[in-house]
Each structure stands twice: as structure tokens, then as C-alpha cells.
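Thread: quick sanity check before group meeting

JM: Hey all, I'm pulling together slides for Thursday and realized we never actually wrote out the predicted structure for the chain we discussed last week. Dropping the sequence here so it's in one place. If anyone has concerns about the input, flag it before I start.
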Amino acid sequence: MPRRIFRDATVAAVFIVTLCGYAQDVATIHVDATPGHEINSFDPDSALGSSIDVLSRTGIDKVYTPHIVQESLSAGWGPITYRNNTELRMAAWHWTENGSWSDAANKSGYFTGSTELKQPLRYILAYSLPHRGFSTSGDRPVQGPNLIYWKSNPYLTSKFTGESDSLHPQWVVVDLRAEKPVSAIRIAWANPYAVTYRVEYWVGKDALDFDSGPQGEWKTFPSGAMTNAKGGTVTLKLAEAPVSTRFLRVLMTESSNTCDVHGSDDVRNCVGYAIEEIHAGSIDANGALVDVATGARAPEYCSSSIDPWHSAADVNATGGQQHSGFDIFFTSGLTNNQPAMIPVTMLYGTPDDAAAQIAYIEKRGYPISYVEMGEEPDGKHAMPEDYGALYLQWATAIHKVDPKLKLGGPVFEGVNEDIRVWPDAQGRTSWMGRFIDYLKAHGRLSDLAFVSFEHYPFERCNITWKTLYQEPKLMKQILQVWRNDGVPQKVPLMVTESSVAAGLTGPMSTIWGGLWLADSIGAFFEGGGAAYYHSPIQPQDVQNTCLGYASWSNFVSDRDYNIKGYMSFYWAAHMINLEWAAHRSGVHHMYASSTGIQDSEGDVLVTSYAVHRPDGNWSLMLVNRDETSPHPVRLVFENSKTHSSASFSGPVTQVTFGSEQYVWKNDGPNSHPDPDGPPVAHVVTGSPEATFTLPKASITVLRGRLEANAQ
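JM (edit): ok, ran it. Output follows.
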């Protein structure tokens, strides 16, 4: 068993830091402790958590053991959120294998899980989507053997939305990978086909860059508007002269409503749009299409949605594409005796199946805190109105099971700026803004109990030490973006998955990663956030990255999940959960604070996060981001109403974790920290003159009470 040593602050050596040699360099940290001036409040038991993601079957068997669960919880995190990697990878999931197919005879169609309480659920399997066809939709899909054609999601048609299909146009974008001359297109339609559609080309920069915002516009080819179309394979001359473009779009607004190869017994087979192939180019003298896409770089195809139809033969029962069954998840202890946030599949599922999942979990008596609806619609280039239409159908079905459940989303990918999409008829481009407007227009904004998003702020191969300085601004900025987009103040904002970058990177395992986590969480609550989940809770092995060896995890472990040591994330979590905040104690109140410690370029070197805890203690988390120098500081707690100030009085607990306690040794597969913690603790006597030294590259928590007349 790896060692875990904590130095008890109550028995540590007592000392007083004098001002000798520091007088001219001591900075003052100002805390606005004025009653009524709190900038946020949170209960760590519901606001500071971690997550569990996709695992292999072997991984599930090894993670859900008493030793690993105990170690995973030892970082101090409270609640847990369950991530849905299956929907991320554009696949259907079966939260249970007990259930029924809409086409029972062929074990195919649309699967609805059973709420019967049979054998406990240990594994959840992914199923590839045959109607994904050629579409990649922006993510890495689970591959399948039976890709037949692309078909749009039937739940986005008037039969299910109650709205005209023209309000939810479906589309396929062809990315030629480089600008090519295009004057014709060949579309092999399947059933149902588009009766009314347009073929368009893009003028501008990347049409699919929703993170930075697509800069440009779609233009219809001179002969690209089609009405009363008949389906089949058609070759269309779009223009007399070729147009140079990289992106083409087939925009469909009216369906033939003819049934696909699965027959007419299920209306879902007979609505939407289906295409077998799309090729672009020009027409030669014989009337044949000359495909412009030649060479090694084949076109890529992105679509508005995908039909969740699949069959038993599409199961992906091997590899890493499995999830923890809800029974093992809830009974293992990993939920820390707290209600858990769980997902329902929405982009590639059905409302009946989502409702059945909720019914099963509640039938078992497992507590649910929140339900996340879908997974990263922005990464799949889903339009906000389409996500909104699905959201309302799923919300209706789930609230029939339990009207009190708190539902939310959209579970955005980690972004630092507003997600912007192609403008609608009113010229609106904000994804979140349009989603909020959709809910308002349908009188259903109350169905949005929270807004969740992931936080992966940096490009993994471009991180330097100074990148650390950006985190507080980026975090507060994105929180403000969602408010500016129209998310009501009463709707909580939650980071439900997070790390330094969306890809593994070396700094995650250095002291840099620990400092980043402290800043990220401090800035999140300072910016008005409600709940922050750091990922993941379970051990993961050390791997090679563009900036050295690293792990996503709190632990140094091998591929068999044997824990050999502790990462900087682990010790930062310890500082956040066990020193700065106090779980099982109640609501913490946060107040504004500032240090004014900057370098010659104006970068803030020391950040400060102040909370008043239920036990009466003030607790400050100070992050010294100076890589080379310590900084001595004094603390002043100011009351603007009485025009008075106060300081710590009596014993002050000082706990520090930093570059003196943790050094990452980059040694290939054997990379490890040495030393690897733990934090060091002292008791300091507080007074107006007391000075506290913050070691270089460190997190320090100062915790104590104010003078009696200032409490």
C-alpha cells in the first residue's frame, strides 16, 4: 500500500514569523469582510466533486474494489458525476441489456431498457449506429460493421416536435479538406428523401469552427434550390462556372416521409431524411460527374443529427467502450454517500429509454442530485434549436417519472469563448443564447434547472509556466459569457468535467497542475459558479505526451490500477477539500480578496480566495504562482460599513503544499514524483503584524479567527 502521511496541524511546531529582512517586501492581502458583501456561497458536500468516466471491463472490475474506492475518496471530493463517453463517441448505450426492441422479431430498431429489478447492473455497453453512415459529426465515433446510410434523427421531425420541419432543417456538410472548384453534385438519396432542399457553398473561414465562430456565410449555388424533388440518385449541375470552396452543405427542409428499409410499422422509419452518398465536382461532356475529391485526403462529412436506430448485432462489447453499471456505481461506495449526477443519452437515444433509466435508478432507491441531458452537442455541431426540441421531449418523459428531478445541460465541450454557430433568420449566432430563447418561446425555461459545461482551457502542447496566469480570467470569463447569453441568475452554473487540457499533457503531473487546480476552483466560485467536478476520481496509468510523461489521475499507477504514489492533483485536492473548505459542515461564504503581487509584466503572481466557514474560521487559499521566489504577506480584513479593519488573532493554522514538497521526475514509463508530499502544517500566532511566507510555486491555506470584536 502506498504511503499517505498527513502532518496534524494541531501538533505541529508553533512558531511566529518575524518581519526581519522582509519589511520592505511584505505585501498586504485585503479581504472585504464586510457583512453582506459575500460574492458567493457554496456547500462543499454538493459543490466540490469528481467524476467517473469510461473504463474497460477489466478496469471496472479493478476500480470498484474496496482499496481503490477508499484511495479514490481520500482526496476529499464530495459528490460524483457520471460521464457518458458512449454518446460522446456517437453511439447508443444500453444502460441495461434487459429490455425490448421496437422490432422484436429482428432484435433491432429502438431499444428501451426494462425497469425490472433483476441481476445488478455491472457493465453498460455501447452500440454503433448503422444510420451514422458517412457522418463523423465532429467526434471520433464508435466504429461499426453495418454502416448503411446516413439518416437524420426522427425526433427532430414534426411528428415529435409538433413544429414544422422547416424550423428544424437537417443538413449534411461536405468538407473537401481544401478549396476545390465545384459546379455539380451527385446525391444518392435513400428513403425518406428531401422534397425541398438547397445545395450551398461556404464563403469564408472554417465553416465548422463553432469554438471560434465560423466567419463567413452559406450561399446557394445559382441552380442549387430544389423543390418537388423525387429522390433516387441525382446529378445536379449547380452553376455554369465552378465555384472555389472547401465546404458544401445540403440543407433539407421538407421530407418525402417515405419509409426506409426497415418498413412502415414504426413511424420513426418514415420521417426525416436519408442519404447514401454525396460526391461533388463537375459534369463532363458526357454528362457524368467528375469527382473533385481525388487523392489521399478523402472528404469528411458532418451532419445535423443521427437516427438512433441500431440492432443487437451492433454491440461493441470489447475494448474501452464500456461504462459502470448503475448498481455497481451506486453500491460500491464511490458516490461517497452523496446523491450523484447522472447522464441520460439524448442525442442518440429515445425519451422512453431515458425515462426508464431514471425509473430503474429510483426503484433501486439510489439518490440522484441532477440529470445531465445529452453529451457535448457543440462537439457534434448540433443546432441549439434541435437540442432544445430534444431537451423538451426528454424533460417531459423524465418528469412523468419524477417531477422533482433537476435537469440540465447542454454539457458543452471545454471552451473559453462563446460557442457561435451559423446565424439564424434573425442573425443570432450564440448557441447558448438561442437555446435559452427556444426554451423561453415554448414556455419551458423552468425545465432548465442548471447549466453544465466542461472546462479544458488550454492547448495541451502549448503550455508554459506563464500559461498558469491565464486560468482565473478564463474561468470567470466563460461564466460571464453564459450569463450574458441569457442564462438566468437563479440557474446554477456547473463545471461537470475538467482538467488542464482535453488531451493528456505533461504539466498535469507537475506542481504546475496542482497550482492550476487550486486557481481553477477558487476562480470558479469567485466568479459565481455553483458546483465544480474535477476529473477523474479513479487511478490511471502514466503515459507519454507532447510535454513529458503524465497521468490524468490523482495517482501514480500502472495499467492494473496499482497505486504507487500521489500526483499534484491529489495534494491540491487535499488542500482544497480538507484544509480550505470543510465538508460535512454546511455553507461556506466567499468574500472578495486581492494581493496586488505582480511581476514586471503585470501578471498577478499570488492569487487569493477567501471563505468564511460555518465553524467561524476564515480560510484563505493563497496560490503563489511565482516559479522562483517566495512572497511574505500580511492579511487585513476590512469592513467598509464600520470603516474598520481586523486581523487574525490567536492560533492560525498554516498549511502549505508546493515545489518543496513535490517534484515530478520525468523518467519515461517510470516517471514519478520525488518527493511526493504531503503538505506541511504549522500553527502561527496571529496579530496585525504577523507575516506569512508563501513559498515559491505553492498553495498555502491560512485558517483562523479574527479579533473577538471583529468576528
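AS: nice. The chain has twelve helices and 44 strands. The domain at 150-307 is CATH 2.60.120.260 (Jelly Rolls).
JM: adding both to the slides.
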